[in-house]
Design goal:
The chain is an alpha+beta fold. It has 4 domains: 96 residues; 135 residues, GAF domain (Beta-Lactamase, 2-Layer Sandwich); 144 residues, 2-Layer Sandwich (Alpha-Beta Plaits); 44 residues. Helices cover 46% and strands 19% of the residues. It contains 18 helices and 16 strands. The radius of gyration is 31 Å and the shape is elongated.
């Protein structure tokens, strides 16, 4: 890994050290003795300050490009050993982060192994405020806000609303690099970085300078920490993808379970959807097997990683895709491409487009009906738009009175489509728009 000379300066145990740091670029990979004829920008060099300053016989100079650290009353050999030890410590830290990617509680272990670097309490929270990991060994007595986080295991909806009002949380969520800001909850700063996985906001890392001010060079080390956190979340997409959490919300709406308006508004912010007015479409997939599904879990992970403007989640034995088709034809095209890729491995029922998430329930049932049609007819795709006419006639059979009013005209439209090879849905729509005049509709 590469570090900044500030990271070395912060770890040096000497009281008489003077930073003469102009740049502090994080490009240091190793430590070397000063050899003027051979200097690499990726190395930090240690030597006697007497080689540069007449009155510095007992001092040591650490040099990296344009940056220097002058240490009084310290032998170069001692400083060299100390810098080498610091470099090894950072390399060991990165190795520990790599190992955490294979741990069951990887995010929490990363915070634990980074405690000597952060030196302050930190936590990671999901877009809904729920804590994904909290720094261990920091008591609630540190600060009232930290106590609140520990008590509620993250941020409550009320707290997130207040943060939105006071610090414009939506703007804070744009941080893609560790960014330091002044806190509105006390005389301290906080460092924030959004954790983005597969183009989705998977979580947020926040570090509070409640115990000591942030050291110079810390953002670079935090950016390394963020990379491994995002790698861990990528390897566990089924847990950390925001679409898995919005799947819980969609499932509740489909089943008619109560869902708070605050939750709807929160997920609207997460995905950037206008849940009351955007156009949506359901794709309901079921693996084409008679026994236990084999490819469903893997397909879920792959689709979660490649589809945008869509929420993907698992519902029993089904894969459910809710696609926002309001402003992106490419979203539907990408799903159609994926459906072609999985071929005959899955049956898929596709609903009609519908406006607003308050209509989820009937259109999910429609997609479910089309999926059943796939299995009944031995086909792999079934689109609701292709079966409007047959479904209307089924309704007429169930309601004889309705059939006496509309069956003759509807039948004429179906005959027209067969003769002219036109699409039934478009013809039916034209018939309605024309005020139920077949001649005008045909024109």
């Amino acid at each position: 890994m590469k570090i900044s000379i500030w990271n070395i300066y912060n770890q040096l145990p000497y009281p008489e050290k003077i930073p003469l740091i102009k740049n502090g670029a994080p490009t240091i990979e190793n430590a070397r003795w000063i050899i003027p004829r051979d200097l690499s920008p990726n190395s930090v060099y240690i030597g006697s300050a007497g080689e540069f300053f007449d009155s510095a016989e007992n001092d040591t100079l650490i040099v990296h490009r344009y940056d220097m650290i002058l240490i009084h009353n310290t032998e170069p050999e001692e400083a060299f050993n100390e810098v080498s030890s610091i470099m090894e410590r950072f390399q060991k830290w990165e190795s520990e982060l790599k190992n955490c990617c294979n741990s069951k509680n990887g995010l929490r272990e990363m915070l634990r192994n980074s405690a000597w670097i952060l030196q302050n309490p930190a936590f990671i929270y999901a877009p809904d405020g729920r804590a994904l990991a909290i720094s261990p060994d920091y008591p609630a007595s540190i600060h009232w806000h930290w106590a609140e986080i520990l008590k509620n295991n993250g941020l409550t909806e009320e707290r997130m609303e207040k943060l939105q009002e006071s610090i414009d949380l939506t703007n804070v969520f744009l941080d893609r690099e560790p960014t330091t800001r002044n806190s509105h909850m006390g005389n301290y700063q906080y460092m924030h970085c959004s954790l983005v996985v597969n183009n989705y906001m998977a979580g947020h890392l926040v570090i509070f300078s409640m115990l000591k001010p942030f050291e110079k060079g810390l953002p670079w080390l935090v950016s390394i920490l963020v990379q491994y956190m995002q790698q861990y979340m990528y390897q566990h997409t089924d847990i950390f993808s925001p679409t898995s959490r919005i799947g819980e919300l969609i499932s509740a709406l489909i089943d008619g379970r109560p869902c708070s308006e605050k939750s709807l508004q929160l997920f609207q912010k997460i995905l950037g959807w206008k849940i009351d007015s955007d156009l949506f479409r359901f794709y309901l997939l079921k693996e084409n097997v008679t026994g236990e599904p084999v490819l469903t879990a893997g397909s879920y992970l792959r689709l979660s990683g490649c589809l945008r403007n869509a929420a993907i989640f698992r519902e029993d034995r089904f894969l459910v895709i809710l696609c926002n088709i309001q402003n992106s034809f490419a979203s539907e095209q990408s799903i159609e491409t994926e459906l072609q890729t999985i071929g005959k491995k899955f049956h898929c029922g596709i609903s009609m487009p519908f406006r607003g998430m308050h209509n989820l329930r009937p259109y999910f049932r429609q997609a479910h009906m089309e999926l059943a049609r796939c299995e009944e007819n031995g086909v792999f795709r079934s689109y609701a738009k292709d079966h409007i006419g047959s479904y209307i006639h089924t309704l007429f059979d169930q309601n004889k009175l309705s059939g006496t009013y509309l069956r003759p005209e509807i039948s004429r439209l179906r005959c027209y489509d067969k003769e002219n090879h036109t699409h039934y849905y478009e013809t039916l729509r034209a018939w309605f728009y024309s005020g139920f005049h077949p001649g005008t509709a045909a024109a």
